[in-house]
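Bumping my old thread because nobody answered last time. Still need a sequence for this structure:
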């Protein structure tokens, strides 16, 4: 529940409402994925191939985001001249 006190809107757990967004957004993403899978049909849901490809894609994207922090470091690492 949201309560408004004057010009400030506070949620029922005491925050302003923006603190829980980093927790709510992945849950919203997962909920939308489930809705899309149900709308596509239960054959994809029962076979599991679409879910498996989706989770592999998520894990690979997280791995590349963590392992390669910035594009400049990536470019300097790949185009470094050979040392003798």
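Sorry it took so long. Here it is:
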């Amino acid at each position: 529940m949201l309560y408004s006190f004057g010009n400030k809107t506070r949620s029922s757990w005491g925050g302003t409402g923006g603190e829980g967004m980093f927790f709510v957004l992945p849950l919203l993403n997962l909920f939308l994925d489930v809705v899309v899978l149900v709308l596509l049909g239960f054959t994809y849901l029962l076979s599991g191939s679409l879910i498996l490809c989706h989770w592999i894609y998520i894990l690979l994207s997280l791995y590349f985001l963590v392992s390669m922090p910035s594009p400049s470091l990536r470019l300097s690492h790949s185009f470094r001249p050979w040392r003798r």
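The chain has one domain: 2-78. Let me know if any region looks off to you.
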